[in-house]
Amino acid sequence: MQTDRLFQILYLLLGGRQVTARELAERFEVSPRTIYRDIDLLSAAGVPVYGDRGRGGGLRLLPGFVLDRTALTRQQQDDILFALQSLKQTGAQDEQGTLQALAALFQREPEDWIDVDFSRWGSGPVDRDKFQLLKTGILSHRVVSFRYFSSGGGQSRRRVQPVRLCFKNSAWYLQAFCLSRQGYRCFKVGRMRDVQLCEEEFPPRRDVPADMDAAFQQSFALTEVTLLFSPQLAFRVYDEFPEKEITARPDGSLLVRTRYPQDDWTVGYLLGFGPGLQVLGPAPLRAALADAAKKIAKRYAKRDNMTH
Q: Is the pLDDT of residue 49 over 70?
């Protein structure tokens, strides 16, 4: 723990920042005395840390100090290079130069170990541009605005303070503080249109929910749902549900117990499985599905009659 803290302090100082012992103590949740002991250890290791006393003072590195690659183990060097390699795949072009510079410093050739494409099939640069804009909003702490199409069929203009991009349940979500709702919400990135980066900045938020599931449940009222799928739909079941929710039955059918909001989106999503799905519960969801199926059948029956 102390070693990790020493490296984090060193990386902060390498950025050219001047910080006080109190700021570091609050950041790492230790006492200022512990921070001063850490600084003594860094100094003993040859890191030229000095402090300015008085108002406006703080801790900083001597100008011109460069981190020797030997200060990092091979595993730590790999962790840094691999992290930058994965970040580069998000379309973050600036990280390519950083990756090459650190690879040269470490005298290592970065492995091309990951290939991630954030776009949907056929969407090309549209999705990549959207992710780049959202990434800029998150890292520069700038408000983002967009039109959002909710699962209930509504459409609204939202202004949010973006804090995190999350991949969940085969889809990308933006976790953000919604200024109109005054609370954290999860927005499905695919439903966001006309995304714009505003000039308005906001201070880094310290109250971000760590658990996305909890944030999702705050946005939607989820209900326990029991589903029975035919063996022919196994490929979709294993694509779209976590294994812990799936129970294979002797006849090859698959029983799924999961949670969904009871709304029009859930009805439409479940209808997409066709006759190979039987909803066992809850009863209100079964009734909503039956009603929707009847309306669909009636609509096509009317069209058939019009053609004769």
A: yes
